[in-house]
Amino acid sequence: MTDERPVLHPRRIAMTDLSTLQSQILSDIAAASDEAALEAVRVAALGKKGSVSALLATLGKMDPEQRKTEGAAINLAKDAVTQALAARRDVLKAAALDAKLAAETIDVTLPLREPLAEAGRIHPLSQVWDELTAIFADMGFAIAEGPDIETDDYNFTKLNFPEGHPAREMHDTFYFNPKDDGSRLLLRTHTSPVQVRTMLSQKPPIRVICPGRTYRSDSDQTHTPMFHQVEGLVIDKGSHLGHLKWILHEFCKAFFEVDNVNMRFRPSFFPFTEPSLEVDIQCRRGKDEIRFGEGEDWLEILGCGMVHPNVLTACGLDPDVYQGFAWGMGIDRIAMLKYGMSDLRQLFEADSRWLNHYGFKPLDIPTLAGGLSS
Ligand code: 2NL
Prior knowledge:
CATH architecture of the largest domain: 2-Layer Sandwich
Bound molecules: 2-{3-[(4-chloropyridin-2-yl)amino]phenoxy}-N-methylacetamide
Shape: rod-shaped
Number of strands: 10
CATH class of the largest domain: Alpha Beta
Largest sheet: 8 strands, mixed
Order of helices and strands: HHHHHEEHEHEEHEEEEHEHH
Helix content: 25-40%
Distance between the termini: 106 Å
Number of domains: 2
Radius of gyration: 44 Å
């Protein structure tokens, strides 16, 4: 047989086979579209069981002469493949980096993301509460607090409300069921009982403010069943309305953050003060905003007066020795005036979008020195 192969010699690798294999591998390398595909081509050619490795493995069975020529040819092919792999890897790496850079562009004009510790908001009522207490603390006032559930005696009787006064009606006040002795607890309708407790437990001079929650059976656009009040009380020998006017004037300037504000004191009536006054401040009412310290309009912001002698007596103080003055205002109302919130009920709806708009940054704590609402 003419084409019988020598039994003891491995099959010669025709140069055309080798160059076909090489060009097949090189075209596979060129076609590899990413590094993973390229690695698959490398393993198929140069890996342990790869096509080029298989060829190299045949060298061992060749005679030296044959090994020299075949070996050189195979190694040349291997070098060509190795080089092509490296070149293609560089190209793919660069392309991958380009794609990554294109996908990960950073917009340096974007605002910084807020740190989580600063992402919450302080409710405007808490803010105003803190502003009030900062202002009065700066004037030497202590802050007194008391229970929301009060006795009829502390909420009404000691404050000179006569039996049968309309404020005592079931209609206006939230009462608990009567006890066996007929007495009824109630939700305080003002923070005055805190001042009663202060007079009963402390010796004058007394300078306190009493911020807190208060309750009345009332619900419409401008009234919620729960609201907030701050009352102030000064008791000393020789306290008079001049002191009261100065304190309230200083308070209004500090709170509304203006250099001056005109105030108007009108006669009024409260059971617990005599004389009693209502206080207006001058302002300019625009379409959507109110400005203080300018303008020709008047806005009522609080009630006040000299503590009624009956109240002093009921609280264990001799009205011939001590005089006092007191005032009260709605925290919700002055918060709405200062920060332009128009709907009282939204203060209590816990709507996070509303809070994001009207709320305050948690680390900006109001102080007179550092700025109340900076
Ligand atoms: C208002 C008026 C006022 C008081 C509260 C008071 C407390 C005691 C004695 C005397 Cl213990 N007075 N508080 C005095 C005058 C007015 O509040 O319009 N509040 C929203």
